Amino acid sequence: MNKNISRLFRFSLAVSILFLIGLAYLFTDSYYLRSLRIVNNASDPRWRVFDFNSRQATEGEIYNVAKVPVISKVKEVSRRKLRFWFSPPIKTTSWKVVDVETGIIMGQGNRPEIQFTDHAYNGTLRFIPEGVTLLKELKIPFSLKKPYSIDEWVGFSGIDKKILKEKQEAFINT
Q1: Which residue in 90, 102, 101 sits closest to 128, CA to CA?
Q2: Torsional class of 110: left (φ above 0), alpha (ψ -120 to 50), beta (otherwise)
Q3: Phi, psi (degrees; rounded to nearest 5) at 121
């Protein structure tokens, strides 16, 4: 029994040492050896990688986060119609709003506006300014449920004759 535990301990120790040697090799390869092979400079921080699958970003992939448009204001301009403002402002002559899932054009005009129907809508909309190239797409998820009347909200049914009579009398008296 003691021999089996001793053998298991030796095996575990040997496997642990192999893993540590492999980890040491990956570390030195990632931080020193690869940069020596590629640019002959181990101290150049541009060639140090923090994971084993990363690479240096190209100039087209580097952007300033402050230049990515975000929603700065939303206003309901009419019944179930929303208008959006972005920061930094996007100067364009025309906007197109497209449903991402179906590809249907939800709105098109000189302002980024969405006119919703009375039906429920769950989906993601993409705002596309005409003639402007954005760093990232403007995708906005929406989840609009069916608008309920006060009677439906409170739980009254439209069948109750007493309530219908009271509503008619209240409407006549106003």
Answers
A1: 90
A2: alpha
A3: -140, 130
pLDDT tens per residue, range 123-145: 889 999 998 888 788 888 877 66
User: Where in the chain do CATH 2.60.40 domains reside?
Assistant: 61-150
* Residue 124 φ then ψ, to 5°: -120, 135
Locate 86 and state its tokens.
């972005």
Instruction: Write the DSSP symbol of residue 31.
Output: I
Which CA distances in Å does 120 have to 100, 143, 151?
16, 8, 19
pTM over 0.90: no
Encoded tokens for 38: 């590629």
C-alpha to C-alpha distance for 20 and 26, rounded to whole angstroms:
10
Q: Which residue has the higher pLDDT, 56 or 3?
A: 3
Residues 6+ apart with CB under 8 A from 110: 93, 94, 95
Asked: is 61-150 a CATH 3.30.460 domain? The reply is no
**Distance between start and end Cα atoms, the chain:** 96
Q: How far apart are CA 3 and CA 101, in angstroms?
A: 65
3-state helix, strand and coil shares in percent for the chain, rounded to the nearest 5: 35, 25, 35
Q: Contact, 44 vs 51, CB < 8 A?
A: no
The CA distances from residue 59 to 56, 146, 147, in Å, are 10, 46, 48
